[in-house]
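Write out this protein's structure.
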Amino acid sequence: MSAHTVDTALKLIGKLILEGELHCRTGLHIGAGKGSLEIGGADNPVVKDSFGHPYVPGSSLRGRLRSLLEQARGLAVPSELVYLSKRRGQEVRIHQSDRPDDEICLLFGRSAGRMERVNGEMLESTCATPARLTVCDAPLDADSITPQMRENLDDELTEVKSENAIDRITSQANPRTLERVPAGARFLVRFVLDVLCEEDKPLIGVLVEGLRLLEDDSLGGGGSRGNGRVGLANLRLVWRGRSFYASGAPEAELIAGADLTALQALVNSPDFASKLVE
């Protein structure tokens, strides 16, 4: 846990900005949630921007990181979860607490109010916390879809994967199709971490931990069926102190062209916090 207390004063010290590439190791499916189907189209299309290009919504990436970190810290248990929604068949449960040093709530934010725990007494939280982490939508690097790849794709930028669900009694096949961004595609990711007090500086290590967990898990739908294996590369971390915004002081590049191993070594080094000055 962090060193935050209920008396920790918040004032912008600066922002850590992490940019890099998210590489698809296997096909990636983040669904668009369309209510209707196009004739000849896939049953489950991927989300696309107004130009028809697939992208990774910041909300999808942020939610996956939060879920993995909650599981890694043992917080995905009924006593630590509250209901965001109790609609039948669409229940949503996330971790929330009123502990001032809860790194998950510090990184992703929390609201004050009365919330129903999945198991236990109601949570009466008076501790509202601004989210430190912003995850931007990640656009597709169109150059990563090579001419050779395009020759074998079902659409200009995506492929269609066919799957079958087999009835265990009748052996009847129930085919379905899934649109995916192909393996080899790259997306451009950007994370912004607000440092609002000295105690916030170690939170970048929590973000990097989540990204390492993601590399050995999956992103998007159908992860257990081979979809959504990703990796991060060419990472660049810069520091923009408050003077960058107030008087135009230069930013400080802390690392560039790095992988997650090198980035984690940097943010966990004893002198890292001293590099983050206003």
